[in-house]
Each structure stands twice: as structure tokens, then as C-alpha cells.
Amino acid sequence: MDERLFETPSVAISECNKLSNEMALLTKDAVHDSLDNLFINSGETNEAIADLENQVDVYEDRLGSYLVRIAGEKLSQSDSRTMSKILHSIGNFERISDHCSNIAVAVIEVDSDIYDPHEYLKKVRVEEKSVFNSFLEEYDQKYNIKKLQ
Question: How far apart are CA 87 and CA 67, in angstroms?
Fold first, then answer.
């Protein structure tokens, strides 16, 4: 992104909007590839998903950093709203592309007979219970809650 655009924040935000649209298209491709991959697991498709996810990560890093810098400039209310929408959108696009990558990994594991949903769910329950208990303990201490006997 051209830093000279900081002199005209509206133009800079417009350019960011165009790039976020490109990011959306990459994310859409990752979603389509992930869905296709559920039915026909292909090493080529897995690589394409990984590549798309990496590209989306780069977009998110660069656009996010650029938008944060633009936020330091004097913005109109409309530009500020647009910037906020772009920031939220690029975060969501990045999250969706991560899910696509996770789907590709799960498909590989299922096809390779190394995916054990019972073991996975057991691990999630144990980890979530541990996290929940630590929050509960912190809450009890913070508010001096006495436990019932």
C-alpha cells in the first residue's frame, strides 16, 4: 500500500476496500475448495487451500496494519465507519480461511484413519473444563465467594 495515500485518507480507505474485496474472493475460493474437498480429497486441492489461507493471512496483516495507521489521520465520519467495517470484515475473512484450512486437515486425517473424533472431543472437554474451572476459581477469589458444603 502506498503511504502517500495517507495525505488523502478517503482515497486510502477506498483502496483498502478494493483490497478487502480481493481478500473476500480469495476466501470464497477457499470455501469452495474446502467443500469440494469434502467429497473428493485431493492433495492438489489441499495445497490450494493452504495457499489461499496464506494469501488471506498476508492481506489481513498488511491491510490491518495500514488501516490502523490511517486511523491516526483525520477521518470523516463516513470514512471512519467504512474503515471499521473493513477491519471487521478482514478479521472474519481470515477466520473463515482458517476454518477452511482446518477442514482440509480434518479431511486428510479422516482419509488417513488418524482422526479419532472421540479422542478429540475428550481432549476438548478436559481442556474446556480446566479453563472453566480456572475462571470460576478466579471469580470466587475476586468476589470472596464461599463454597457451599
Answer: 7
pLDDT digits 0-9 by tens, 80-137: 999 999 999 999 999 999 999 999 988 888 777 776 666 665 665 566 666 666 766 7
C-beta separation of 90 from 20 below 8 A: yes
76: left (phi over 0), alpha (psi -120 to 50) or beta: beta
Q: How far is CA 133 from CA 27, 121, 136, in A?
A: 36, 18, 5
Dist. CA 45–CA 56, nearest whole Å: 16
Rounded Cα distance between 118 and 87, Å, is: 37
Assess contact for 30 and 49: CB atoms under 8 A: yes
53-69 burial, b for 16+ CB within 10 Å, e for fewer?
Answer: bebbeebbeebbebbee
CA–CA distance, 147 with 88 (Å, rounded to integer): 41
CB distance 47 to 76 below 8 Å: no
